[in-house]
């Protein structure tokens, strides 16, 4: 294993650092095509995606959080209603079938049983427009789908998903723009601008990775704690959920992700000096709202750890620690903000001495119910 690991201590750390490469490999087909061509999703795509009226995303775990980010993009960029369900919930509830609905499954392994069964259930209800976003060629879920986009993360060994997640987001972003283009919601100039943002993404992710020493120094503050809260808004709310999931999976610290606007509807009651609060604070339209959420936490004596875009004018103050992420990158910002929360979980687990690549009780691929 040491040969495969190179300079890294764990596969998770290696896979976190492989993200600039994984993202540019996954974006390569899109950049080579010079745009978000529906054909990226398969030769049948133009027909399958034509007159789609809504999108239903199905997935488990981290892949589900990728779906939650995609919902914002599909509604905003493509102008289509989008629902996201946990596969094990969808497969056991009554669904209102619509043959013009696109069913999108997201699975790193392509073998997760609940996601596969949710897809079969959707098909049994009469849905035949199916698209799989998957990292493993020829696995079960893409084989059962009409369209497929393969992420090119490469083999992911760490149980906690990292590079699969961010490459899934690239695939889902491409889907949102392709649907928007087909529906006349995205014109040539907008498409070119979005393509440019995609081209710059691996560089921004590399900047975020360069923050590792600063993030590792925060891990000492997290390691002795029992609980942590992660806050975000908009497309960064699922990143808060993902940050909390990573931390609980590998460090066994109880963590919750919350949309920052819900703070006063419950979690504020838990805030005291013993519970660190992580805030994802990109320089977007919601920044002022996030800043006022930070004041609410500070007023209760909570210690804040803020990931703030370089251009969002945040500085350290009493009880507020700030790490400056790269300048705001626009619509792809949740991909860049996924990196610091991965690194925070990794270094906290390292400080606690847990088995980072094989956390207790968890499996890489869940093929049982
Ligand atoms: C397991 C893994 C997670 C993964 C989830 C879904 O819980 O530990 O990292 O996100 O399964 O897996 P999939 O292969 O369907 O994306």
TrEMBL record:
A molecular function GO annotation: glutamine-fructose-6-phosphate transaminase (isomerizing) activity
Active site (UniProt): 364
Single GO BP term: protein N-linked glycosylation
Main localisation: cytoplasm
Keywords: Aminotransferase, Cytoplasm, Glutamine amidotransferase, Repeat, Transferase
GO cellular component: cytosol
KW Ion transport (keyword) present: no
Documented EC number(s): 2.6.1.16
Source taxon at top rank: Bacteria
UniProt-annotated location(s): Cytoplasm
Keyword set includes Nucleotidyltransferase: no
Domain (SIS): residue spans on this chain: 45-185, 218-359
Complex and partners: Homodimer.
Protein purpose: Catalyzes the first step in hexosamine metabolism, converting fructose-6P into glucosamine-6P using glutamine as a nitrogen source.
Name listed for the protein in its UniProt record: Glutamine--fructose-6-phosphate aminotransferase [isomerizing]
Residues of the full protein shown: 242 to 610 of 610
